[in-house]
Write a structure and sequence with these properties.
Blueprint (H helix, E strand, L loop, with lengths): L9 H5 L2 H32 L2 H9 L5 H8 L8 H21 L4 H29 L3 H32 L1 H22 L13 H14 L1 H22 L1 H8 L5 H23 L2 H6 L1 H14 L6 H13 L5 H10 L5 H29 L2 H14 L15 H4 L6
Helix pairs in contact: 2-3, 2-6, 2-7, 2-8, 4-6, 4-9, 4-17, 5-6, 5-8, 6-17, 7-8, 7-12, 7-16, 10-14, 10-16, 10-17, 10-18, 11-12, 12-15, 14-15, 14-18, 17-18
């Protein structure tokens, strides 16, 4: 199947049993992780009364991924995917269980979450590589679309369940529910996924091989630009989302409107992935990548205009729908990456996205302090629009680089 052929269907994607296993496991794990983040933030706030430490509890699962992705990313192409993915889900469950059942200082709680986060890019990279291996052509792109849509829905579900569970039984019991969700995800993978071979068996330093892989991947201008355009727009949008509570207050919106504003972006993401993934032809998706990045940022830039609540909600839904630009970049990024580096590419992709989304709220929060919240949100939108310039044009000649021609460094 080539990019000019007809688009794949959901039936074709879900006909692949390995994809079904990964899909249901990832959905359960993300819902559990969202519940864990919320419950831990509440627990830390109850223990300390510190809004700063509560925010750090939220960020502790993001920024440490940078170390794991950079230093251990090569493991995704060396270790069999099933034990790697199972270990990733079980470690998340163990962390939630430990914090829920053992009295410990807040610093120890955050250290546990940070340690688990270091390994997140590794098992995420293994899962991403496996999806690329079992789905080909447009089925791969539609599969990524389904995964993205499920992630958005699972995050909403996890936060909704988290609010109800914490209110009903308290944050420690909610953490036990989150741990059970992670164990469920691990069981789905362990019982449903064959124990496939890893790609390579050579030894040598995983750290050295990982750093070499990062150098080669980011040294390739096409891969570098595609990575940046995967990282930066979501980071700008995430930073703007972090300001929506303050934005609603600054605009004088009714109580409770901040929750509706925050839900509007993931609703738009669900709609965008569904429409662009299923009903837009593959070749057209790639041509629409630039306009969709503009759609992701343009509505944020317009929020400075002071629209009423209904107009603001509509703009945020459009912003979320623009996130479907990534679907047009899936095939070019996969084709630009040497097969022996694909696992590490997915690990690096996850690392950059999580790191950028962890830093952006801090940066935009500081900008809001120095200026105004609506102006900071608008600046995030303008920066997103500028990211459209990073997207290579379809059919643009690809230069030969070390990443595209050299074998992986086994040393």
């Amino acid at each position: 199947m080539t990019v000019a052929d007809r688009g794949a269907t959901y039936r074709e994607v879900f006909a692949e049993p390995k994809f079904r296993v990964l899909f249901f496991a990832r959905t359960a794990a993300i819902a559990a992780e969202s519940l864990r983040i919320f419950a831990l933030s509440v627990l830390v706030f109850e223990q300390t009364g510190s809004a700063l430490l509560s925010a750090l509890a939220f960020a502790a699962g993001f920024l440490p991924q940078l170390a794991g992705g950079l230093l251990l990313g090569a493991l995704t192409d060396r270790i069999r995917p099933r034990p790697l993915i199972v270990a990733g889900y079980l470690s998340g469950g163990a962390a939630a269980l430990l914090i829920a059942t053992v009295e410990m200082p807040v610093a120890a709680q955050l250290t546990i979450i940070a340690a688990v986060a270091c390994g997140t890019p590794i098992f995420m990279g293994a899962a991403g590589r496996l999806v690329a291996d079992v789905l080909t052509g447009d089925a791969y792109v539609l599969g990524r679309s389904v995964m993205n849509a499920a992630s958005s829905g699972a995050q909403l579900l996890g936060l909704a369940v988290g609010g109800v569970t914490v209110a009903a039984v308290g944050p420690r019991q909610a953490l036990l529910v989150a741990a059970a969700g992670q164990v469920l995800a691990a069981l789905i993978v362990r019982l449903g996924l064959p124990d496939l071979d890893g790609l390579r068996a050579e030894g040598g330093s995983a750290v050295r091989a990982s750093l070499t892989g990062v150098r080669d991947l980011l040294g390739d201008p096409v891969i570098r630009r595609l990575m940046l355009v995967h990282w930066l727009p979501p980071a700008c949008v995430a930073g703007a989302e972090a300001l929506l509570v303050a934005y609603a207050t600054a605009r004088g919106f009714p109580a409770g409107s901040a929750g509706a504003l925050m839900a509007a972006v993931p609703v738009g993401m669900l709609l965008g992935d569904l429409i662009v993934g299923r009903w837009v032809r593959p070749a057209m998706r790639e041509r629409l990548s630039r306009p969709l990045v503009v759609l992701a940022g343009g509505p944020l830039a317009l929020l400075v205009a002071g629209l009423p609540l209904g107009g603001s909600l509509a703009l945020l839904v459009l912003c979320g729908a623009g996130a479907a630009y990534q679907l047009g970049l899936q095939r070019p990024l996969l084709e630009a990456t040497p097969e022996a580096r694909r696992g590490q590419m997915f690990a690096l992709l996850s690392t950059g996205m999580m790191t950028a989304q962890g830093l952006s709220p801090v940066i935009l929060g500081a900008a809001a302090q120095l200026t105004t919240t609506p102006l900071a949100v608008s600046a995030a939108g303008a920066a997103t629009v500028l990211c459209a310039l990073l997207i290579p044009r379809p059919g643009q000649p690809r230069p030969l680089t070390r990443a595209s021609t050299a074998a992986p460094d086994a040393s």
